[in-house]
Amino acid sequence: MGNKSSLVLKPEEWEEIKQETGFTQNQISRLYGRFTSLDKMNTGTLGREDFLRIPELAINPLGDRIVHAFFSESLDGTINFRQFVRVLSRFRRIKESEKDKLNSREEKLRFAFRMYDLDDDDKISRDELLAVLHMLVGVDISEEQLASIADRTIMEADTDGDRLISFEEFCATLERTDIEEKMSIRFLH
Ligand SMILES: [Ca+2]
Ligand SMILES: [Ca+2]
Questions:
Q1: Residue 163 C-alpha to ligand 2 middle, in angstroms?
Q2: Structural domain includes residue 134
C-alpha cells in the first residue's frame, strides 16, 4: 500500500520488459523484490547510494564504475525499476537465440567502455585507464608498471593516433577476449 502501489507494473509493462530484456516473469519478480528492498525511502527510484548496498557491487573492485555506468542514462541521478532491469539485463549470459537483446556483446562492450570513460566524452584517455587500473590491481604493482601497462594498452588500441581509445578501438582490442564471461555477474542467484 501507500507509495509502493505506484510501482506496480501494468500487465503490458511486464510484457515489454520481458521482450526487451529476455528475463522471465519469475526473474523480473525477484528483481522487483530486490528493487523495492533497495528502495528504502519508497520513492520508486534508486540513487547511487542504494546501489552500493548490492553486495556483488560492494565487493567488486569495479563496483563504483559499474554504478557510474548504471546512471549514465539517467538525467536526474536516479533510476526507476524499468531502467534498473534494463541495465541488469546486460549482465545476463547470451543465448544463441537472443543476440539482439540488451545483453548482446555490443551492449556489454558499451557498458564496459563507459566504466573506463570517467568523464563521458566517448574516449578513454591514459589517465582514465590508469585510474581504472588502480582500482583493479590494488597495491601490488608499482606506479611505473601501471603507467607502462596504460601506455602499452593505449599504443596497441589506438589506431588513429590521437592517444585516446574510441569505442571502435576499444571493441577491436577486446575482439578476442571473452567479454561475455567477464561481464556476466550472478545477480539472480
Ligand atoms: Ca574520457
Ligand atoms: Ca584513438
A1: 6
A2: yes
